[in-house]
Amino acid sequence: MNDRDDHAVAAALAAEAGDLLLRIRDQGGDAGDKQSNDLLLRRLAQTRPEDAVLSEERTDDRVRLEHDRVWIIDPLDGTREYGEPPRDDWAVHVALAVRGRPDVGAVALPAAGLVLHTGGPPALSPRAAGPIRLAVSRTRPPACVDHLVTRLDAALVPMGSAGAKAMAVVRGQVDVYAHSGGQYEWDSCAPVAVAAAAGIHVSRLDGSPLRYNQPDPYLPDLLICRPELAAPVLAALRDQEVTT
C-alpha cells in the first residue's frame, strides 16, 4: 500500500481491521482491541514508517509531538457493543492529523458492512421531517443532552460508540451528536475528519476548532451536526453556559 494516498490507506486499514474484528468477535473485546491494534500498528509501520502514531491501545511516548503527521487510531471503538452481537454500533477509527488538523480519516462500521472515509465522503441527504434527532449514549448520556432536548424539542436516538453516533449524522440517521462527558483524541479524530469532508459542522461545544496531536490527548467536548442546525445548537449550548 506504499504507493496509495493517505485517504486510501486510512480506508484500507480501517476495512482490514474491521474484517479481522468480525472474524474474532467470539473471542471478546479484549482480544479484539489487542489484535486490531497490532494489525494497525504493523500496517502503518509498513506503509507510513516516517509518521508517528497515537493509539488508544498503546502507551503514549509523546514522540508524536515532534511530528507534523500523526496517525490517530482507535482499534475498537465501542468494546461493549462489540461484545454484544449482533449489535452493529461499534467502529474502527483510522485518522491522520497534519499539524493538528484532522485532514484524513476512515471509520469502519464492520457489522454494518460500511467504511466511510475522506477519500469519497457520502453526500449529505436532506434532513428528515419531524423533530431534531439527537444521538445519545445508551448508558452514559452527557450533561448537555437534557438541555438540548428541552431547548430544541429534540428526540433522543440511543446508540453505542462515538464513531457510530458520528457516522449516524453522516448517514442521515440523526441530526446532532453533542458530547460533553470527556473523550480522547482517538475517539473523535477519524469521525470528525469524515464528517467535515461530508460538509457537516464539527467543533467544540463552544464553536471553537477541534485540534489534535496535543500534549494532553484528552478532549472534553465535541459537536457534530448538520450544517443548517449548527447555529441553533450552538446558541442553545451558549444559553446553557449562561444559565448554569
TrEMBL record:
GO terms for molecular function: 3'(2'),5'-bisphosphate nucleotidase activity; metal ion binding. Mg(2+) binds at residues 56, 74, 76-77, 187. Signal peptide: none annotated. Keywords: Magnesium, Metal-binding. The keyword Metal-binding applies. Its cofactor is Mg(2+). The keyword Cell inner membrane does not apply. It comes from the Bacteria. GO terms for biological process: 3'-phosphoadenosine 5'-phosphosulfate metabolic process; sulfate assimilation. This is 3'(2'),5'-bisphosphate nucleotidase CysQ.
